[in-house]
Design a protein that fits this description.
This protein is mostly beta strands and 143 residues long. The relative contact order is 0.20. The chain has a 7-stranded antiparallel beta sheet with strand order 1-2-3-5-6-7-4, with helices on one face. The chain has one domain: Roll (Thiol Ester Dehydrase, Chain A), CATH 3.10.129.10. The two termini are 17 Å apart. Helices cover 13% and strands 36% of the residues. The chain is globular.
Length: 143
Amino acid sequence: MKKLPEHGWCFVCGTENPRSLGITWFLNDENVIVAEYVFDLGQQGPPGHVHGGASAAVLDEAMGAAVWRAGHSVAAANLEINYKKPLPLGQRITILARVSEVHPRKIYTTGEMLLPDGSVAVTGRGVYVHAPHLFETASFGYG
């Protein structure tokens, strides 16, 4: 697996942001974004469990990284997050994301968060649109 670079002030993976979750992304041989993360009390929603917004932000970043890694400068246009099981705090969660379809103006992605036993807790689908103008002065090393 290849480690992907972080990008500065990113809420999910940036090392310059003191409030970042600090997730490190990897790309496997099948072009799937992979990470493992242990959520803590800073991401709590229901007692002992991850806030839905925290898991949504992580899946958005993972799916976006998959699109960026495929060479597209994009922004999210639509996210659909499905919560199948609660994500517990303090346990290693596996995060996966991939590009599922590429069209001239839109790129579709899927993602999932797995519990330690391998069962699917959260799934996501994203639609990303080309938006290079938003990133003219930034370089994330994904391309």
